[in-house]
Structures are given as structure tokens and as C-alpha cells.
């Protein structure tokens, strides 16, 4: 071990200040032992470059695993949303088809009744118009609700994705600061 001070000069300095040669040498010897013990303790706490590289590789493999998990989660969330959107579209098409069928039935009934009673036809037309406007309002309301729900799901997915990305970046920066 290299010492970063001159032990002989320290012995001479102690002798100048009233210590004997033997006392000075014992004091300097004790200081050297204390310094060596402190250096040994410091070296035990230090890591080598190889150990640091191994730890860095372990952290990087953990980060890669987290990235894979995030990709899998992201894909499963998007596929779930797609399937839900498809179900909603099918339901909407069925509702529209039912409405069209109902409208067709009501119009056919009205045409038959037109020949029987003219006065009753006017009343039926007004009732039919009310039913159509209510149905249209219901359809418009349902479509607007579905659009709102889809937008909220999109925003939730964007939030989760952004949160996940920032979490990964924070973890990576935290590990990076720990090792630097």
C-alpha cells in the first residue's frame, strides 16, 4: 500500500515537539495501522468494474422483462377494446335493422288502414311520427352514449400507456442514478 504522507518526516516532527524517537515511531506505526484498517473497510464496500457490469446487465434484463410485459398488456387491452367495439357495432346494426323492420311493419299497417278509414289514418300518421321521432332520439342518444364511452376508453388507454411509459422511464433513471 502506498501512503500519502512521509512517515519519516512525521517522526521527525514529533521528535521536535518533545516526543522520543521510540514514542514517535509507535505513534506513526499506529497511524499507519489505522489508515490501513480504514482503507480495508473502504475497499470491502467498493465493487469492481466486473461486479458493476454484472449488476447492470441484471438490471437491463429486468427492464427488458418489464418492457415485454408492458407490450403484452398493451396488446391484450387493445384487442379487448377492439372486440368490445365489434360487439357494440353488431348490436347497433341489429337495433337499426329492428327499427327498420318495425318501421316497415307500421307503414304496411298504415297503408292497409288508409283504405278503410281516412280519419283514422291521420291519427295513425301523427302517432307514427311521434314514435319515429322518439325512436330517432333514442338511436341518436344511444349512438352519442356509445361514442362517449369509446372516447373515454381511448383516453383511459392513453393514460395507462403514458403512465406505464413514465413508470418504466422513472425506474430506468432510478437504476441509472444508483449505478452512476
UniProtKB/TrEMBL annotation:
It comes from Panurus biarmicus (Bearded tit). Its main location: mitochondrion. The keyword Nucleotidyltransferase does not apply. The keyword Mitochondrion applies. The gene is Mcur1. It is found in: Mitochondrion membrane. This is MCUR1 regulator. InterPro entries: CCDC90-like. One of its GO terms (biological process) is calcium import into the mitochondrion.
Amino acid at each position: 500500500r502506498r501512503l500519502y504522507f512521509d512517515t519519516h518526516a512525521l517522526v521527525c516532527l514529533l521528535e521536535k515537539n518533545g516526543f522520543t524517537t521510540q514514542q514517535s515511531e509507535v505513534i506513526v506505526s499506529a497511524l499507519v495501522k489505522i489508515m490501513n484498517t480504514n482503507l480495508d473497510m473502504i475497499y470491502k464496500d467498493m465493487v469492481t468494474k466486473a461486479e458493476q457490469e454484472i449488476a447492470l446487465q441484471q438490471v437491463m434484463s429486468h427492464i427488458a422483462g418489464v418492457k415485454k410485459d408492458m407490450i403484452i398488456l398493451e396488446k391484450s387491452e387493445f384487442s379487448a377494446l377492439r372486440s368490445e367495439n365489434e360487439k357494440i357495432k353488431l348490436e347497433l346494426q341489429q337495433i337499426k335493422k329492428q327499427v327498420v323492420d318495425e318501421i316497415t311493419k307500421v307503414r304496411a299497417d298504415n297503408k292497409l288502414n288508409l283504405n278503410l278509414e281516412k280519419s283514422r289514418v291521420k291519427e295513425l300518421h301523427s302517432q307514427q311520427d311521434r314514435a319515429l321521432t322518439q325512436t330517432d332520439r333514442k338511436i341518436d342518444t344511444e349512438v352519442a352514449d356509445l361514442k362517449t364511452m369509446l372516447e373515454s376508453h381511448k383516453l383511459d388507454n392513453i393514460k395507462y400507456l403514458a403512465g406505464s411509459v413514465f413508470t418504466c422511464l422513472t425506474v430506468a433513471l432510478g437504476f441509472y442514478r444508483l449505478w452512476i
